[in-house]
Design goal:
Layout: H1 5-8, H2 11-16, H3 19-23, H4 29-45, E1 52-54, E2 63-66, E3 69-72, E4 79-81, H5 83-96, H6 102-105, H7 110-123, H8 135-154
Antiparallel strand pairs: 1-4, 2-3
């Protein structure tokens, strides 16, 4: 997974062009100015390497429940890496669906929290994808949840944008 870091890491993209992130209303300019160096540093220190087989896109719509078991589907991003990465990527979705806060499952993982939040920060404000009309709204919800987690884990103030508490679900 380390070889794919730049493909998924998003805070450097936000730093280079913060306009699409700022339009999301998740945080104010002063908050981003204060938090961005911390988020960038944590994201760069996130441990991605490992020998575990990763799905790399775990979320509820990629889970199939059948005959008392759960099967992961849609393996197009499969790779090897840190097994905590699949968990970290899934936790904001789990929280959005009424599960525990991400830091209850992975406490002390500010690097992974920042990595996950950075991915959504760089993608939620992009134009809609053909055939996937709800993807950007989902990524925005994932950003809200993962950014709040990253802020808590890294000792940052909570994101302060006016749209931080609204939801598309």
């Amino acid at each position: 997974m380390e070889t794919r870091r730049s493909e998924f890491a998003g805070w450097s993209r936000v730093a280079a062009d913060p306009a699409s992130f700022m339009r999301l209303g998740v945080a104010t300019d002063p908050w981003l100015s204060r938090a961005l160096p911390v988020l960038l540093g944590a994201e760069s220190r996130a441990t991605l390497d490992g020998a575990a087989l990763l799905h790399d896109d775990v979320r509820s719509d990629n889970l199939c429940f059948a005959d008392g078991r759960v099967v992961l589907v849609d393996w197009n991003w499969a790779c090897r890496g840190n097994p905590k990465l699949d968990i970290a990527a899934w936790l904001p979705s789990l929280a959005l669906e009424g599960g525990p806060a991400p830091d209850e499952i992975l406490p002390g993982e500010g690097g992974l929290a920042s990595f996950v939040a950075g991915f959504h920060a760089a993608h939620a404000g992009l134009p809609p994808l053909p055939g996937r009309p709800t993807l950007r709204a989902f990524q925005l919800d994932m950003l809200r949840e993962s950014l709040a987690w990253a802020a808590r884990a890294l000792g940052l103030p909570a994101p302060d944008g006016p749209a931080v508490h609204s939801s598309h679900h």
